[in-house]
Amino acid sequence: MFSRVGDDVSLPCNNVVYPDCSSTTWLYNRALSTRTIQEVTLGEIKVDQTERADRLSLGSNCSLHVSDVRAEDVGLYICRQFLTETGTQHGGDAPVHLSVLTRSTASTARPAFSSTSPSSAGTSNAVKLPISHIMLFVTLTIMAAIVTIHTRRNRPPKALPPQAEEASGMEIHVLEE
């Protein structure tokens, strides 16, 4: 799932047991982190567990609503269902991966968007180019290589000019039978 910085996003929970969300637990694993945070437990947002509690709420069908999305919200969210507080998990996990699009300034007047994902979450000094520029560069490079190869294959072998034959001191005689 994708969202832009500053937008609101609702992450769906596809295995809801009770519509009042009393069976719903949401876990969050930040990109490139081994720590899992339990942000919602049995329908209650855990204020003491997450610094984002003021931006989280449960929506219809127990979806996790994140308001004012930030780049650090990228990661894996897992919705789980429990029939009772001490009971075992009911059904499987319902994972949702959130990628956050961040706005960057390009050299032109129009804005460019780039994606922050788990593999690029920690790199702030990366060069960001619009996809169209990269595709144009790759296309032109491939075309130049094709033209060069085609030209070299179809070129006739070079004949020595008459002056080169004389300078070499060699005489060429054609024998006829």
- Average pLDDT, rounded to a whole number, is 78
Helical stretch tally: 2
> How many angstroms does the end-to-end distance come to?
83 Å
Unreliable spans: 107-112, 117-126
Bulk shape: elongated
Instruction: Tell me the helix content.
Output: 10-25%
Please trace the helix and strand order, writing H or E for each element: EEEEEEEEEEHH
Return the domain count: 2
CATH topology of the largest domain: Immunoglobulin-like
The largest sheet is:
7 strands, mixed
Provide a concise account of the structure shown.
With 177 residues, the chain is α+β, with helices and mostly antiparallel strands. It has helices at residues 131-154, 162-168; strands spanning 2-4, 9-11, 24-30, 36-41, 44-45, 56-58, 64-66, 75-81, 94-104, 112-116. It is 18% helix and 28% strand.
What does this entry look like structurally?
This protein has 177 residues and is of the alpha+beta class. It folds into two domains: 2-116, Immunoglobulins (Immunoglobulin-like, Sandwich), CATH 2.60.40.10; 131-168. The chain contains two helices and ten strands; from the N terminus they run ββββββββββαα. The strands form two sheets. Strands 1, 3, 4, 5, 8, 9 and 10 form a seven-stranded mixed β-sheet that branches. A three-stranded antiparallel β-sheet has the order 2-7-6, with no helix packed on it. A hairpin with a 5-residue loop joins strand 6 (56-58) and strand 7. The termini are far apart. The chain crosses the membrane at residues 129-149. This is Ig-like domain-containing protein. InterPro entries: Ig-like_dom, Ig-like_dom_sf, Ig-like_fold.
